[in-house]
Design brief:
Order of helices and strands: HHEHEEEEEEEEEEEEEHHHEEEEE
Helix content: 10-25%
Largest sheet: 18 strands, antiparallel, barrel
CATH topology: Porin
Oligomer: single chain
Number of helices: 6
Strand content: over 45%
Distance between the termini: 33 Å
Length: 468
Protein backbone atom coordinates (compact mmCIF):
# COMPACT_ATOMS: atom_id res chain seq x y z
CA UNK A 1 0.00 0.00 0.00
CA UNK A 2 2.86 2.37 0.82
CA UNK A 3 4.37 1.76 -2.65
CA UNK A 4 1.01 2.43 -4.31
CA UNK A 5 0.56 5.69 -2.38
CA UNK A 6 4.08 6.79 -3.29
CA UNK A 7 3.47 5.96 -6.95
CA UNK A 8 0.20 7.88 -6.86
CA UNK A 9 1.82 10.98 -5.40
CA UNK A 10 4.66 10.77 -7.92
CA UNK A 11 2.31 10.51 -10.90
CA UNK A 12 0.08 13.30 -9.60
CA UNK A 13 3.06 15.61 -9.27
CA UNK A 14 4.33 14.66 -12.74
CA UNK A 15 0.93 15.18 -14.39
CA UNK A 16 0.51 18.57 -12.68
CA UNK A 17 4.02 19.64 -13.55
CA UNK A 18 3.57 18.59 -17.16
CA UNK A 19 0.24 20.23 -17.84
CA UNK A 20 -0.20 23.14 -15.42
CA UNK A 21 1.93 25.54 -17.50
CA UNK A 22 -0.37 24.81 -20.42
CA UNK A 23 -3.62 24.99 -18.44
CA UNK A 24 -3.06 28.26 -16.63
CA UNK A 25 -3.23 30.70 -19.56
CA UNK A 26 -6.25 28.88 -20.97
CA UNK A 27 -8.52 28.69 -17.92
CA UNK A 28 -10.69 31.56 -19.14
CA UNK A 29 -11.09 30.20 -22.68
CA UNK A 30 -14.51 29.24 -23.92
CA UNK A 31 -14.51 25.45 -23.92
CA UNK A 32 -17.08 25.32 -26.73
CA UNK A 33 -14.46 26.66 -29.12
CA UNK A 34 -12.32 23.66 -28.24
CA UNK A 35 -15.17 21.34 -29.13
CA UNK A 36 -15.39 22.97 -32.56
CA UNK A 37 -11.74 22.10 -33.19
CA UNK A 38 -12.49 18.36 -33.40
CA UNK A 39 -11.17 16.79 -36.58
CA UNK A 40 -14.56 15.80 -37.97
CA UNK A 41 -15.18 15.11 -41.65
CA UNK A 42 -16.68 18.15 -43.34
CA UNK A 43 -17.85 18.89 -46.84
CA UNK A 44 -17.31 22.64 -46.43
CA UNK A 45 -14.88 23.67 -49.17
CA UNK A 46 -14.55 27.27 -47.95
CA UNK A 47 -11.16 26.56 -46.41
CA UNK A 48 -9.13 29.72 -45.85
CA UNK A 49 -5.55 29.82 -46.95
CA UNK A 50 -3.22 29.08 -44.03
CA UNK A 51 -1.13 31.98 -42.87
CA UNK A 52 2.13 31.14 -41.12
CA UNK A 53 2.19 28.79 -38.14
CA UNK A 54 -0.27 28.37 -35.30
CA UNK A 55 -0.07 26.27 -32.12
CA UNK A 56 -3.11 25.53 -29.93
CA UNK A 57 -3.66 23.59 -26.72
CA UNK A 58 -6.95 22.63 -25.09
CA UNK A 59 -8.41 19.57 -23.42
CA UNK A 60 -10.00 18.29 -20.27
CA UNK A 61 -9.25 16.86 -16.83
CA UNK A 62 -11.73 14.49 -15.22
CA UNK A 63 -12.36 13.14 -11.75
CA UNK A 64 -14.70 10.14 -11.68
CA UNK A 65 -16.15 8.35 -8.63
CA UNK A 66 -18.03 5.08 -9.11
CA UNK A 67 -20.14 3.07 -6.69
CA UNK A 68 -21.31 -0.48 -7.41
CA UNK A 69 -23.84 -2.84 -5.91
CA UNK A 70 -22.55 -6.32 -6.73
CA UNK A 71 -24.81 -9.07 -8.05
CA UNK A 72 -23.11 -11.97 -6.26
CA UNK A 73 -25.49 -14.56 -7.71
CA UNK A 74 -24.77 -13.62 -11.33
CA UNK A 75 -22.84 -15.90 -13.65
CA UNK A 76 -20.17 -13.26 -14.33
CA UNK A 77 -19.52 -12.75 -10.60
CA UNK A 78 -19.23 -16.50 -10.00
CA UNK A 79 -16.91 -16.93 -12.95
CA UNK A 80 -14.62 -14.10 -11.90
CA UNK A 81 -14.62 -14.30 -8.10
CA UNK A 82 -15.57 -17.87 -7.18
CA UNK A 83 -12.31 -18.30 -5.25
CA UNK A 84 -12.04 -14.67 -4.05
CA UNK A 85 -15.42 -13.49 -2.66
CA UNK A 86 -16.01 -9.73 -2.71
CA UNK A 87 -18.07 -7.32 -0.62
CA UNK A 88 -21.67 -6.54 -1.60
CA UNK A 89 -20.65 -3.01 -2.62
CA UNK A 90 -17.50 -1.63 -4.21
CA UNK A 91 -16.05 1.73 -5.20
CA UNK A 92 -13.78 2.96 -8.03
CA UNK A 93 -11.97 6.24 -8.55
CA UNK A 94 -10.40 7.61 -11.73
CA UNK A 95 -8.31 10.69 -12.45
CA UNK A 96 -7.88 11.39 -16.17
CA UNK A 97 -6.02 14.18 -17.96
CA UNK A 98 -6.56 14.46 -21.71
CA UNK A 99 -4.92 17.45 -23.39
CA UNK A 100 -5.25 18.11 -27.11
CA UNK A 101 -2.56 19.82 -29.14
CA UNK A 102 -2.57 21.06 -32.72
CA UNK A 103 0.04 22.75 -34.88
CA UNK A 104 -0.50 24.31 -38.30
CA UNK A 105 2.15 25.51 -40.72
CA UNK A 106 1.15 26.33 -44.28
CA UNK A 107 -0.07 23.07 -45.86
CA UNK A 108 1.02 20.92 -42.92
CA UNK A 109 -0.61 20.30 -39.56
CA UNK A 110 -0.25 17.94 -36.62
CA UNK A 111 -2.68 16.83 -33.94
CA UNK A 112 -2.21 14.82 -30.73
CA UNK A 113 -4.50 13.70 -27.94
CA UNK A 114 -2.49 11.97 -25.19
CA UNK A 115 -4.24 10.51 -22.16
CA UNK A 116 -2.98 9.91 -18.63
CA UNK A 117 -5.08 7.78 -16.25
CA UNK A 118 -4.71 6.79 -12.62
CA UNK A 119 -7.41 4.53 -11.19
CA UNK A 120 -8.14 2.71 -7.95
CA UNK A 121 -10.70 -0.07 -7.67
CA UNK A 122 -11.94 -1.94 -4.64
CA UNK A 123 -12.44 -4.96 -6.90
CA UNK A 124 -9.27 -6.71 -8.13
CA UNK A 125 -8.23 -5.34 -11.51
CA UNK A 126 -7.18 -7.21 -14.63
CA UNK A 127 -4.26 -6.02 -16.75
CA UNK A 128 -5.06 -4.16 -19.97
CA UNK A 129 -2.58 -4.04 -22.85
CA UNK A 130 -2.39 -0.85 -24.90
CA UNK A 131 -0.77 -0.27 -28.26
CA UNK A 132 2.59 1.43 -28.43
CA UNK A 133 3.43 4.14 -27.64
CA UNK A 134 2.14 3.62 -24.09
CA UNK A 135 3.39 3.26 -20.53
CA UNK A 136 1.63 1.06 -17.96
CA UNK A 137 1.92 1.89 -14.26
CA UNK A 138 1.29 -0.26 -11.15
CA UNK A 139 1.80 -3.45 -13.15
CA UNK A 140 1.81 -5.76 -10.12
CA UNK A 141 -0.85 -4.00 -8.08
CA UNK A 142 -4.33 -5.56 -7.84
CA UNK A 143 -6.20 -2.36 -7.00
CA UNK A 144 -4.22 0.48 -8.64
CA UNK A 145 -3.91 0.95 -12.38
CA UNK A 146 -2.41 3.65 -14.54
CA UNK A 147 -1.43 4.28 -18.11
CA UNK A 148 -0.12 7.03 -20.32
CA UNK A 149 -0.90 6.62 -24.00
CA UNK A 150 -1.67 8.48 -27.20
CA UNK A 151 -5.31 8.10 -28.21
CA UNK A 152 -4.52 9.99 -31.40
CA UNK A 153 -1.33 11.48 -32.87
CA UNK A 154 -1.07 12.16 -36.59
CA UNK A 155 0.27 14.58 -39.19
CA UNK A 156 -1.67 16.04 -42.11
CA UNK A 157 -0.62 17.41 -45.48
CA UNK A 158 -3.32 19.32 -47.36
CA UNK A 159 -1.81 20.86 -50.51
CA UNK A 160 -5.31 21.64 -51.82
CA UNK A 161 -8.75 21.90 -50.20
CA UNK A 162 -9.89 18.75 -52.01
CA UNK A 163 -6.90 16.52 -51.24
CA UNK A 164 -5.50 15.33 -47.90
CA UNK A 165 -2.81 12.89 -46.80
CA UNK A 166 -2.61 11.78 -43.15
CA UNK A 167 -0.37 9.39 -41.24
CA UNK A 168 -0.23 8.38 -37.59
CA UNK A 169 -2.58 7.13 -34.90
CA UNK A 170 -6.17 8.14 -35.61
CA UNK A 171 -9.77 7.24 -34.83
CA UNK A 172 -11.33 6.49 -38.21
CA UNK A 173 -14.96 7.62 -37.93
CA UNK A 174 -16.67 5.34 -40.41
CA UNK A 175 -20.40 4.76 -40.04
CA UNK A 176 -23.52 6.79 -39.28
CA UNK A 177 -24.78 5.03 -36.13
CA UNK A 178 -24.66 6.55 -32.66
CA UNK A 179 -24.35 3.53 -30.34
CA UNK A 180 -22.96 0.98 -32.80
CA UNK A 181 -21.08 1.12 -36.11
CA UNK A 182 -21.03 -2.25 -37.92
CA UNK A 183 -19.13 -0.66 -40.86
CA UNK A 184 -16.35 0.78 -38.65
CA UNK A 185 -13.93 -1.90 -39.80
CA UNK A 186 -10.80 -0.08 -38.62
CA UNK A 187 -12.00 1.40 -35.32
CA UNK A 188 -12.29 0.11 -31.79
CA UNK A 189 -15.84 -0.55 -30.62
CA UNK A 190 -17.73 2.22 -28.85
CA UNK A 191 -18.77 1.88 -25.22
CA UNK A 192 -22.51 1.43 -25.77
CA UNK A 193 -23.17 2.88 -22.28
CA UNK A 194 -21.17 6.01 -23.21
CA UNK A 195 -20.87 6.30 -27.01
CA UNK A 196 -19.54 9.87 -26.90
CA UNK A 197 -16.43 8.87 -24.94
CA UNK A 198 -13.23 9.31 -26.94
CA UNK A 199 -11.42 6.14 -27.99
CA UNK A 200 -7.92 4.99 -28.81
CA UNK A 201 -7.22 5.00 -32.54
CA UNK A 202 -5.18 2.77 -34.82
CA UNK A 203 -1.90 3.56 -36.57
CA UNK A 204 -2.61 4.13 -40.26
CA UNK A 205 -1.92 6.11 -43.39
CA UNK A 206 -4.72 7.35 -45.57
CA UNK A 207 -5.62 9.78 -48.32
CA UNK A 208 -8.81 11.69 -49.03
CA UNK A 209 -9.64 13.05 -52.49
CA UNK A 210 -12.86 15.01 -53.08
CA UNK A 211 -14.60 16.19 -56.24
CA UNK A 212 -17.79 18.26 -56.52
CA UNK A 213 -20.31 18.47 -59.36
CA UNK A 214 -23.53 20.13 -60.42
CA UNK A 215 -26.65 18.00 -60.58
CA UNK A 216 -28.08 15.21 -58.41
CA UNK A 217 -24.59 13.84 -57.67
CA UNK A 218 -23.03 16.75 -55.84
CA UNK A 219 -19.92 15.21 -54.27
CA UNK A 220 -17.67 12.18 -54.67
CA UNK A 221 -14.85 11.33 -52.27
CA UNK A 222 -12.36 8.48 -52.27
CA UNK A 223 -10.47 7.45 -49.10
CA UNK A 224 -7.92 4.60 -49.25
CA UNK A 225 -6.37 3.50 -45.94
CA UNK A 226 -3.52 1.17 -44.90
CA UNK A 227 -2.93 -0.19 -41.37
CA UNK A 228 0.07 -2.29 -40.24
CA UNK A 229 -0.51 -4.94 -37.54
CA UNK A 230 2.33 -6.19 -35.32
CA UNK A 231 2.69 -7.53 -31.80
CA UNK A 232 2.66 -4.02 -30.32
CA UNK A 233 0.93 -1.92 -32.99
CA UNK A 234 -2.79 -2.17 -33.80
CA UNK A 235 -3.22 -5.18 -31.52
CA UNK A 236 -6.46 -7.07 -32.01
CA UNK A 237 -7.20 -5.64 -35.45
CA UNK A 238 -5.96 -8.83 -37.15
CA UNK A 239 -5.20 -12.31 -35.84
CA UNK A 240 -1.45 -11.98 -36.46
CA UNK A 241 1.10 -9.69 -38.09
CA UNK A 242 -0.52 -8.32 -41.20
CA UNK A 243 -1.03 -5.40 -43.53
CA UNK A 244 -4.69 -4.40 -43.55
CA UNK A 245 -5.95 -2.19 -46.35
CA UNK A 246 -9.28 -0.80 -47.36
CA UNK A 247 -11.16 2.08 -48.87
CA UNK A 248 -14.28 4.19 -48.54
CA UNK A 249 -16.14 5.76 -51.45
CA UNK A 250 -18.47 8.62 -50.51
CA UNK A 251 -21.37 9.97 -52.55
CA UNK A 252 -23.69 12.89 -51.90
CA UNK A 253 -26.55 11.84 -54.16
CA UNK A 254 -29.96 13.57 -54.06
CA UNK A 255 -28.97 15.02 -50.67
CA UNK A 256 -28.35 11.53 -49.26
CA UNK A 257 -24.94 10.75 -47.75
CA UNK A 258 -23.80 7.29 -48.93
CA UNK A 259 -20.59 5.43 -48.07
CA UNK A 260 -19.39 2.18 -49.64
CA UNK A 261 -16.63 0.51 -47.64
CA UNK A 262 -14.35 -2.52 -47.88
CA UNK A 263 -11.44 -3.82 -45.78
CA UNK A 264 -9.13 -6.83 -46.32
CA UNK A 265 -5.70 -8.17 -45.37
CA UNK A 266 -3.65 -11.15 -44.26
CA UNK A 267 -4.96 -12.85 -41.08
CA UNK A 268 -7.99 -10.57 -41.33
CA UNK A 269 -11.55 -11.47 -42.32
CA UNK A 270 -12.58 -9.48 -45.38
CA UNK A 271 -15.40 -7.04 -44.67
CA UNK A 272 -17.66 -4.99 -46.92
CA UNK A 273 -20.48 -2.60 -46.16
CA UNK A 274 -22.54 0.45 -46.98
CA UNK A 275 -24.08 3.22 -44.89
CA UNK A 276 -26.38 6.15 -45.51
CA UNK A 277 -27.86 9.21 -43.80
CA UNK A 278 -30.57 11.62 -44.91
CA UNK A 279 -32.98 14.22 -43.60
CA UNK A 280 -36.59 13.12 -44.02
CA UNK A 281 -37.73 16.49 -42.68
CA UNK A 282 -35.98 19.49 -41.21
CA UNK A 283 -36.07 17.94 -37.73
CA UNK A 284 -36.18 14.22 -38.59
CA UNK A 285 -33.18 12.25 -39.86
CA UNK A 286 -32.68 8.60 -40.78
CA UNK A 287 -29.44 6.63 -40.90
CA UNK A 288 -28.40 3.05 -41.50
CA UNK A 289 -25.47 0.68 -41.89
CA UNK A 290 -25.11 -2.77 -43.47
CA UNK A 291 -21.98 -4.93 -43.35
CA UNK A 292 -20.79 -8.47 -43.98
CA UNK A 293 -17.80 -10.16 -42.35
CA UNK A 294 -16.86 -13.02 -44.65
CA UNK A 295 -15.81 -16.44 -43.28
CA UNK A 296 -16.15 -15.32 -39.65
CA UNK A 297 -15.16 -17.98 -37.10
CA UNK A 298 -17.71 -18.12 -34.28
CA UNK A 299 -16.78 -19.71 -30.95
CA UNK A 300 -19.55 -21.29 -28.86
CA UNK A 301 -19.87 -23.22 -25.58
CA UNK A 302 -22.66 -25.63 -24.69
CA UNK A 303 -24.07 -26.33 -21.22
CA UNK A 304 -21.52 -29.06 -20.59
CA UNK A 305 -18.63 -26.69 -21.32
CA UNK A 306 -17.74 -28.10 -24.73
CA UNK A 307 -16.21 -25.48 -27.01
CA UNK A 308 -17.18 -25.48 -30.66
CA UNK A 309 -16.20 -23.40 -33.68
CA UNK A 310 -17.96 -22.81 -36.96
CA UNK A 311 -17.44 -20.47 -39.89
CA UNK A 312 -20.10 -18.27 -41.41
CA UNK A 313 -20.62 -15.01 -43.25
CA UNK A 314 -21.81 -12.63 -40.53
CA UNK A 315 -24.34 -10.03 -41.70
CA UNK A 316 -24.83 -7.04 -39.38
CA UNK A 317 -27.03 -4.00 -39.87
CA UNK A 318 -28.34 -0.93 -38.07
CA UNK A 319 -31.26 1.40 -38.70
CA UNK A 320 -31.81 4.59 -36.74
CA UNK A 321 -33.97 7.71 -36.44
CA UNK A 322 -33.23 11.04 -34.78
CA UNK A 323 -35.98 13.57 -34.05
CA UNK A 324 -35.61 17.08 -32.60
CA UNK A 325 -38.68 18.90 -31.28
CA UNK A 326 -39.28 22.64 -31.16
CA UNK A 327 -38.62 22.48 -27.40
CA UNK A 328 -35.10 21.05 -27.90
CA UNK A 329 -36.04 17.50 -26.94
CA UNK A 330 -33.98 14.97 -28.89
CA UNK A 331 -35.23 11.42 -29.49
CA UNK A 332 -32.83 8.81 -30.85
CA UNK A 333 -33.78 5.22 -31.66
CA UNK A 334 -31.60 2.51 -33.23
CA UNK A 335 -32.18 -1.14 -34.05
CA UNK A 336 -29.00 -3.20 -34.31
CA UNK A 337 -28.58 -6.76 -35.55
CA UNK A 338 -25.19 -8.20 -34.63
CA UNK A 339 -24.38 -11.02 -37.02
CA UNK A 340 -21.35 -11.98 -34.92
CA UNK A 341 -23.38 -12.15 -31.70
CA UNK A 342 -25.00 -14.92 -29.71
CA UNK A 343 -28.66 -15.90 -29.65
CA UNK A 344 -30.60 -16.09 -26.38
CA UNK A 345 -30.15 -19.88 -26.38
CA UNK A 346 -26.38 -19.61 -26.91
CA UNK A 347 -25.98 -17.06 -24.10
CA UNK A 348 -28.19 -19.16 -21.82
CA UNK A 349 -26.04 -22.26 -22.48
CA UNK A 350 -22.90 -20.31 -21.59
CA UNK A 351 -24.36 -19.02 -18.32
CA UNK A 352 -25.58 -22.55 -17.52
CA UNK A 353 -22.03 -23.87 -17.99
CA UNK A 354 -20.76 -21.28 -15.50
CA UNK A 355 -23.47 -22.24 -12.99
CA UNK A 356 -22.58 -25.92 -13.42
CA UNK A 357 -18.91 -25.12 -12.87
CA UNK A 358 -19.75 -23.14 -9.74
CA UNK A 359 -21.81 -26.05 -8.42
CA UNK A 360 -18.84 -28.36 -9.06
CA UNK A 361 -16.52 -26.00 -7.18
CA UNK A 362 -18.77 -25.54 -4.14
CA UNK A 363 -19.42 -29.29 -4.10
CA UNK A 364 -15.72 -30.06 -3.91
CA UNK A 365 -15.29 -31.26 -7.51
CA UNK A 366 -12.74 -28.58 -8.45
CA UNK A 367 -12.81 -25.56 -10.73
CA UNK A 368 -11.85 -27.07 -14.07
CA UNK A 369 -15.19 -26.22 -15.70
CA UNK A 370 -15.10 -22.62 -14.42
CA UNK A 371 -11.58 -22.21 -15.80
CA UNK A 372 -12.78 -23.59 -19.12
CA UNK A 373 -15.56 -20.99 -19.32
CA UNK A 374 -12.92 -18.30 -18.86
CA UNK A 375 -11.33 -19.40 -22.13
CA UNK A 376 -14.29 -17.95 -24.04
CA UNK A 377 -15.16 -15.11 -21.65
CA UNK A 378 -13.66 -12.48 -23.99
CA UNK A 379 -16.28 -13.51 -26.58
CA UNK A 380 -19.35 -13.86 -24.37
CA UNK A 381 -18.73 -11.19 -21.71
CA UNK A 382 -18.02 -8.26 -24.02
CA UNK A 383 -20.52 -5.48 -24.52
CA UNK A 384 -23.39 -6.17 -26.96
CA UNK A 385 -22.59 -9.87 -27.27
CA UNK A 386 -26.20 -10.70 -28.20
CA UNK A 387 -27.76 -10.61 -31.66
CA UNK A 388 -30.58 -8.06 -31.60
CA UNK A 389 -30.79 -4.77 -29.71
CA UNK A 390 -32.98 -1.70 -29.47
CA UNK A 391 -31.37 1.55 -28.31
CA UNK A 392 -33.55 4.48 -27.24
CA UNK A 393 -32.31 7.80 -25.90
CA UNK A 394 -34.20 10.97 -25.02
CA UNK A 395 -32.54 14.18 -23.85
CA UNK A 396 -33.97 17.57 -22.97
CA UNK A 397 -31.93 20.75 -23.21
CA UNK A 398 -32.50 23.20 -20.33
CA UNK A 399 -35.83 21.85 -19.01
CA UNK A 400 -38.08 24.21 -17.02
CA UNK A 401 -35.78 27.05 -18.06
CA UNK A 402 -32.84 25.71 -16.02
CA UNK A 403 -29.84 26.98 -17.97
CA UNK A 404 -26.91 24.67 -18.77
CA UNK A 405 -28.79 21.53 -17.62
CA UNK A 406 -29.39 18.54 -19.93
CA UNK A 407 -31.05 15.43 -18.44
CA UNK A 408 -30.96 12.22 -20.49
CA UNK A 409 -32.56 8.79 -20.25
CA UNK A 410 -31.17 5.85 -22.22
CA UNK A 411 -32.40 2.28 -22.42
CA UNK A 412 -30.72 -0.62 -24.22
CA UNK A 413 -32.93 -3.67 -24.77
CA UNK A 414 -31.71 -7.14 -25.73
CA UNK A 415 -34.59 -8.25 -27.94
CA UNK A 416 -33.56 -11.90 -27.71
CA UNK A 417 -34.04 -12.37 -23.97
CA UNK A 418 -35.99 -9.26 -22.94
CA UNK A 419 -33.35 -7.98 -20.53
CA UNK A 420 -32.42 -4.31 -20.61
CA UNK A 421 -30.56 -1.51 -18.91
CA UNK A 422 -31.83 1.91 -17.79
CA UNK A 423 -29.28 4.72 -17.79
CA UNK A 424 -30.57 8.04 -16.38
CA UNK A 425 -28.05 10.88 -16.30
CA UNK A 426 -27.70 14.64 -16.34
CA UNK A 427 -25.02 17.12 -17.36
CA UNK A 428 -24.81 20.55 -15.80
CA UNK A 429 -22.30 23.30 -16.51
CA UNK A 430 -21.31 24.79 -13.15
CA UNK A 431 -19.18 27.32 -15.05
CA UNK A 432 -18.32 27.67 -18.75
CA UNK A 433 -15.36 25.37 -18.09
CA UNK A 434 -16.62 23.03 -15.34
CA UNK A 435 -19.16 20.24 -15.92
CA UNK A 436 -20.76 17.83 -13.46
CA UNK A 437 -22.34 14.61 -14.71
CA UNK A 438 -24.14 12.16 -12.39
CA UNK A 439 -25.41 8.93 -13.98
CA UNK A 440 -26.81 5.52 -13.11
CA UNK A 441 -26.61 2.20 -14.97
CA UNK A 442 -29.37 -0.19 -13.87
CA UNK A 443 -29.38 -3.64 -15.55
CA UNK A 444 -32.69 -5.51 -15.40
CA UNK A 445 -33.23 -9.15 -16.35
CA UNK A 446 -33.83 -12.68 -15.18
CA UNK A 447 -31.46 -15.60 -14.76
CA UNK A 448 -29.84 -16.66 -18.01
CA UNK A 449 -30.31 -13.25 -19.66
CA UNK A 450 -27.52 -10.88 -20.69
CA UNK A 451 -28.32 -8.01 -18.32
CA UNK A 452 -29.56 -10.31 -15.56
CA UNK A 453 -26.14 -11.96 -15.39
CA UNK A 454 -24.08 -8.75 -15.27
CA UNK A 455 -21.55 -8.23 -12.46
CA UNK A 456 -23.34 -5.11 -11.17
CA UNK A 457 -26.97 -4.90 -10.11
CA UNK A 458 -26.47 -1.11 -9.91
CA UNK A 459 -23.68 1.24 -10.94
CA UNK A 460 -23.60 4.92 -10.04
CA UNK A 461 -21.12 7.50 -11.34
CA UNK A 462 -20.26 11.09 -10.58
CA UNK A 463 -18.00 12.84 -13.07
CA UNK A 464 -16.46 16.28 -12.67
CA UNK A 465 -14.81 17.55 -15.85
CA UNK A 466 -12.78 20.72 -16.29
CA UNK A 467 -12.33 21.95 -19.87
CA UNK A 468 -9.28 24.06 -20.55
Amino acid sequence: MHEAQSAWRFLAVMVWAAFSPLMAPLMAADWAQAQDAEHDYSMDFAIPEPEGSRFEVWGQAELRAVGRVINDTSAIYRQRYYDDPQEDTAADFLVRVKPELSFHYNDFSAYARPRADVAWSQLPLTQTDYDDPSVTLFKKDKHWAGEVLAEEAFVTWRPAPAFTLESGKKVLKWGKGYAWNPVAFASRAKDVDDPDQTREGYVMAYADAIASFDGPLKTVAFTPVVLPVTGSVNQGLADDSSLVYGTKAYLLLFDVDIDMLVMAGDNYDTRAGVDFAANLMENLAIHGEFSTRFDFEKTTMDRAGNIGKRRQDALSFLLGLRYLTENDTTYLAEYYHNGEGYSHEELSDYYAAIDAGYADFTGGAGDSLLKKTRQVSNKYNKSSSGQDYLYFRVSQKEPFGILYLTPTLTTILNLGDGSFTLNPEATYMLTPALEIRPRLIIPVGGAGSEYGEKLNSLRGEMRLTWYF
